[in-house]
Amino acid sequence: MNLTFENFVEEFNRFTEVVQNKINIKDYYFIEPVGVGVLKALIIENPDLDICGDPSKPSYSYINTLLSVPYNKYKNYFPLEIVDFNNIEENSMKIINLIVSSSSYTLKEDDKEVLNGYLKYLTGELLNNALYHSLSEINAVIAGQYFSKRGKIQICVIDRGKGFLFNLKEAYKVSAESDAIKKALEKGVSSPPCKDNLYYSVGHAGYGLYALRRIIEEINGRLIIISNNCSVKLEGGNIKILSEEINWKGVIVVFELLETYIYDILQKYTLQDFFKIFLWNEDGKDDEIF
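User: That's the sequence. What structure does it adopt?
Assistant: Structure tokens below.
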């Protein structure tokens, strides 16, 4: 079987099960970036953890490449990147540049520049949340890929921190992880950073998950958020709880954009236009959004 966006939550507990310090992925023929990112996060936390795969399956070589091969802008693979406070933009842009530079797009070069801006913003906000709010001891893992045959982009950011409920329970009186995730997707929801270091290098910082939600809705994309025991999916403008029995510590955010719809939003709005129309107040001032 394959581990994909579609069955990621359904397979999650089985996929991440640790038995005698080993994770067995032999059943998976192919694993999308979000699955490899999860494995990387677990390995950073426990360097003695072994990943047992089947050398005859593409998942084996794919995972070995992503887990061990360094970034090379001239290659077509998408290495995982470990992001900390000092390399937020540098390491996120490695993934984005590889995604946007693909020759398989039908997009024009000007459109690619606008797409680059959208992806830079989205990943920057996710990394900002992971580094400044989560208290993740492994910092954050980012992974992504453009699948030319399916015309889709997948990007994920993963941490091993405290989760959404930890950040929002007092200010917003939520008592369940699912309610905290849904609250974080609302406009105007904020929480103070858990880190004292407030340096942030990605432009338009501070709009957070609400901006991600609006872009996903406008572009007809898909989003899954896992926070500790709970997983929530946003698709077609609807927020749905998928499971409240997830075995995870921290947050996983994975989103997908389809090339079919990317073109439409790039023709309608620059990123600045998008902010003016959907996010800024009428007086031109921006909201503080988690």
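Residues 197-206, 286-290 have pLDDT under 50 and may be disordered.
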